[in-house]
Amino acid sequence: MEPFKKLTSIVAPIDRVNVDTDAIIPKQFLKRIERSGFGQFLFYEWRFDENEEPKPEFALNQPRYQGANILLARANFGCGSSREHAPWALKDFGFNVIIAPSFADIFYNNSFKNGVLLIKLSEEQVDDLFKRVQAKEGYALTVDLEEQTITDNEGLSISFEVDPYRRECLLKGLDDIGITLAYDEKIKEYEQKVPAYYSVK
Q: How high is the pLDDT of residue 191?
């Protein structure tokens, strides 16, 4: 997992509450066994019509939001099933940060484990950001995880809270496997002390 410290990017809006994981990555695309390749199916039924043509009215199909790495969303983002494919798809599409008033718990945990920073702001702050995004094409934010701030070029500055453990994992680029490997020497030390008959053949 790549370390995350600071990101400046244009912002793409998904102005809907209760966006569930089946909307994020529909169930028919869950057949892949690796984590990559899911981005092309992100919000598939919202992005494409019955002829698989892009719907021009959907934000992620509009030229002004192309290349966005920050997603602005509404309350209860990521609700529904617990599929880990949802953060895989968002990450694979290019989103490294998602800002919303609230997130579903399992989606919240899965996202951090896959290197996606989720930021909870108040409804009022999110409303203000939606207005800023809609008012200015190419509106960009800088998210600084070390300082725990969100800023723009127009004087906006917002502080955000994040769990210290999750923050440290993102800053160092550590997923569950990486955390375990950080104790590699201690694991080897312990294994050398364990009697041979306990060893796995």
A: 64
Nearest to 6 by CA among 119, 144, 164: 144
Residue for token pair 């969100």:
150
Place of tokens 């968002």: 90
Prediction pTM value: 0.88
Q: What is the pLDDT of residue 131?
A: 98
Two tokens at 131? 């207005």
Structure tokens at 5: 């410290």
Q: Looking at the domain assignment, is residue 184 inside a domain?
A: no
Q: What are the strands of the beta sheet with 70-73, ordered from one edge?
A: 117-120, 97-100, 70-73, 6-14, 140-144, 149-151, 157-159
| Alpha helices (runs of H) in the chain, residue ranges in sequence order | 21-24, 44-47, 85-93, 105-113, 123-135, 164-172, 176-181, 184-193
pLDDT at residue 177 tops 60: no
Residue numbers of the domain that contains 26: 8-162
Residue 46, domain CATH = 3.20.19.10
